[in-house]
Design a protein that fits this description.
The structure is a single chain. The protein is an all-alpha fold. The chain has eleven helices and no strands. The longest helix is centred in the last third of the chain and has 30 residues, at about 125-155. It is flat, with a radius of gyration of 24 Å.
Amino acid sequence: MAAEHYFRAMPETFVALFRQHLDTIVRRWVDEMYRERRTDMPEALSYGQLVDHYPEILDELARLLDSHAVESEIMEVGRRMREHAHVRFQRGVLLDEVARELMLFRRTVNDFLWREGMSATLGDLRELRDALKRADQFVDEMIAQAVVIYAASWRPPVETRTSVWPPPRRRKTDFSESDDAG
């Protein structure tokens, strides 16, 4: 009961922290993207296209951290954020570049949380560790959703058979005499 009271009493500290430092977080991530030699995203996309989803992504992540989200909640939010990968696909960004982008985002968020997160967790290292774990799970889910979007977009249409259940009843006359002899 005391833990429930403690969590309810805490304000939405990560939401406030992320909103306060939104420009700094995005700028540091963009700097990492421009330094990264394994992706051409900064050359292929305008600055606006590069950062367009990140305020929403950071806001969703902050809400997950504040609510002490469990894995199923993190997965659900990750699924809702599929649009990010879909837009990247539509703009011609390769899957490995999206994965690299999200890995750099993870590093930027983790660095930020280590630097500023103690204020959001009121100095509780265990809670900071849990927040970092949830942030990692969120980015993992974003990468998984990118794979789903790209795989579904590349998959050629495949004709599949349909099954009928229960199967139709067979009559004795449906069997040939050779079946009876065997």
